[in-house]
Amino acid sequence: MEKTFSQWKKQCLNKLDHSKKSSVDEDIEHVVILLNSCEEYFTTSSCSGRIILIDGVSGSSDVQKQNCVWLFVSHQKCKSEDLISGLAKSSADAVLKFEPFVLHVQCRQLEDAQLVHSVAINSGFRNSGLTISKTGKILTVCFVTELIFNDCAPP
Predict the structure, then answer these.
(1) CA 117, CA 24: separation in Å to the nearest integer?
(2) DSSP string covering 81-99
(3) pLDDT single digits (tens) 107-124
(4) Which of 14, 16, 84, 142 has its CA 20 to 30 A from that of 46?
């Protein structure tokens, strides 16, 4: 198992970033770098949270990120003007999505995963969990599903 984890880590950290953004979000880059520098962990994916405005498919209620047109995306606070500008580019109904922070951490041993999980839960990421695959991969997922809206009143 030891050699396999090292192989998985090397392979994962050496591959290209296939996300649409092609880089780690600036707000969580320090966390990703810290975890990847430890022998016990490496990150397999991450997102600091984002707002996405997607061009909808006319007559369809199905929302998929793959093969869709992103009218606007931000990993930071945005202004109503940004969204209105994105809506102007829409060819049909647009879909506004908020995706909260998520961090996937592959761990060397179960005890390592339990520590990451405990830290995540104690930090407020109440929906975090861990899984062990049939091939022995131990993965901790840190996230929260609650959404907090602030400053929602019209100007």
Answers:
(1) 21
(2) HHHHHHHHT-SS-EEEEEE
(3) 999 999 999 999 999 998
(4) 84
Query: Any idea which residue has 């647009």 for tokens?
Result: 94
The structure tokens listed for 106 are 């592959």
CA torsion through residues 109, 110, 111, 114, sign = positive
**What's the rounded Cα separation, in Å, for the pair 144 and 27?**
17
Strands 70-74 and 94-99: unpaired
pTM: 0.78
The CB-side HSE value for 35 (13 A sphere, CA atoms) comes to 25
* Closest to 47 (Cα-Cα) out of 70, 76, 25: 25
In contact, 48 and 101? CB cutoff 8 Å: yes
Instruction: Return d(Cα 60, Cα 127) in angstroms, integer.
Output: 30
